[in-house]
Amino acid sequence: MIVEIGHFALILAACVALVQGVLPLAGTAFDHQRWQALARPSAAVQFLLIAFSFGVLAHGALTDDFSIKYIAEHSNSLLPAQYKFASVWGGHEGSLLLWMLMLSGWTVSVALFSRTLPLAMVARVIGILGLVSTGFLMFILTTSSPFERLLPAAPDGRDLNPLLQDPGLVIHPPMLYMGYVGFSVAFAFSVAALMSGRMDAAWARWSRPWTVVAWIFMTAGIALGSWWAYYELGWGGWWFWDPVENASLMPWLFGTALIHALMVTDKRGGFKAWSVLLAIGAFSLSLLGTFLVRSGVLTSVHAFASDPKRGVFILIFLALVVGISLTLFAWRAPKATLGGKIGLVSRESMLLVNSVLLVVATGAVLLGTVYPLIVDALNLGKLSVGAPYFNAVFVPLMVPVVFLMVPGGISHWRESRLKELGQDMLVPAIAAVLAGLAVWTLTERGSWLTAMGTALAVWVVVGLVMQIVARLQKPGRIAPSFWGMHLAHLGIAVVVVGITMVKGYEVERDVRMGLNDTVSIENYSFELTGVSQVDGPNYKAIRAEFKVSKDGQFLELMKPEKRKYFSSAMPMTEAAIDTGLFRDLYLSLGEAIEGSTPQWSVRVFYKPFVSWIWYGAILMVLGGLFAVSDRRYRNSAASVA
Amino acid sequence: MKPRHQRFLLITLGVAALAVAGMFVLNAFQSNLVFFFTPTQVSNGEAPKGRAFRVGGMVKEGSLVKDGENVQFVITDFAHDVPVVYKGLLPDLFKEGKGVVAQGKLSQDNGFAASEVLAKHDENYMPPEAKHALDEAAASRAAKSVMPSK
Question: What dotted CATH number matches B36-146?
Answer without folding.
Answer: 2.40.50.140
